[in-house]
Amino acid sequence: MADTYNVNPTRMELKKMKIRYANARRGHKLLKDKRDGLMKQFLETVRQNKELREKVEAALSGVYDSLAIAGAVSGPRVLEESLMLPKKQGNLDVRYRNVMSVTVPEFELEVIGKDAQDSYNYGLVFTSGELDASLAQMSSVMEDMIALAESEKTVQLLAQEIEKTRRRVNALEYIMIPKYLATIKSIKMKLDENDRGNTTRLMKVKDMMLKAQRESARSDEDEEEEGA
């Protein structure tokens, strides 16, 4: 027999167990619907994340190749001096939104500088064109990198919520609901047993009363016969 809750076998406790069982069933259905919705959103986000990652990795590969060529042409010292002082800076603004009851971040990059579109903070006389190309590629891929970071964090948070919801569903399905059912069955059996015991006692009391009435009637008849 399944494990049961330690409660008194009374009709009041039976009513409470039935209410808790009904609430557990409703909660189980809601959590399963939430889990399915989270899985759908998770798979869609993973697909978008995969596309973004491939795009970013391909772009960064081109950036690294251009930087390697620039370092070979101009020399590491010239490359370091060219990139030493940045011409502009960026602020990352973080906002939050709700996805299937999960709070996920939204990143927005604000570029600050005199000429936000100009990525070059050095003279073009002593540097190679590969350095210019690598910086232009890096500037163009920056938005995709921010979107990738946002997507990665969303996937992580959705996965955590899916795992938490799955544990709750399993706890309800395999522990709490069977335990409520076993407790309800146990209380019903004990109440039925008590009812049968009470019925048996009432029948015995009734038989004893009838027997006493018959003996009393017989005694009255005997007294009347003796008096006659």
Quick structural summary:
By secondary structure, the chain is mainly alpha-helical. Helices cover 75% and strands 10% of the residues. It has three helices and two strands.
Detail the topology: elements first, then pairings:
Layout: H1 11-74, H2 76-82, E1 89-99, E2 102-112, H3 129-227
Helix pairs in contact: 1-2, 1-3
Feature tags:
2 strands; 228 residues; rod-shaped; mainly alpha; Helix Hairpins; two-stranded antiparallel ribbon; single chain; 3 helices; 75% helix
Describe this structure in words.
75% of the residues lie in helices and 10% in strands. It is rod-shaped, with a radius of gyration of 40 Å. The mean pLDDT is 83. A hairpin with a 2-residue loop joins strand 1 and strand 2 (102-112). A two-stranded antiparallel sheet has the order 1-2. It has a single domain, classed as Helix Hairpins. It has three helices and two strands, in the order H-H-E-E-H. It has 228 residues and is mostly helical.
| Helix/strand order, N-terminal first | HHEEH
* CATH-assigned fold name: Helix Hairpins
Strand order of the largest sheet: 1-2
How many domains, in number, for the residues? 1
Instruction: Count every helix, treating DSSP H or I runs of 4 or more residues as helices.
Output: 3
Shape: rod-shaped
Q: What is the mean predicted local confidence, pLDDT?
A: 83
Question: For the terminal residues, how far apart are their CA atoms?
Answer: 70 Å
Largest sheet, in brief, is: 2 strands, antiparallel
In total, the number of strands is 2
Structural class designation: mainly alpha
Specify the helix fraction band.
over 70%
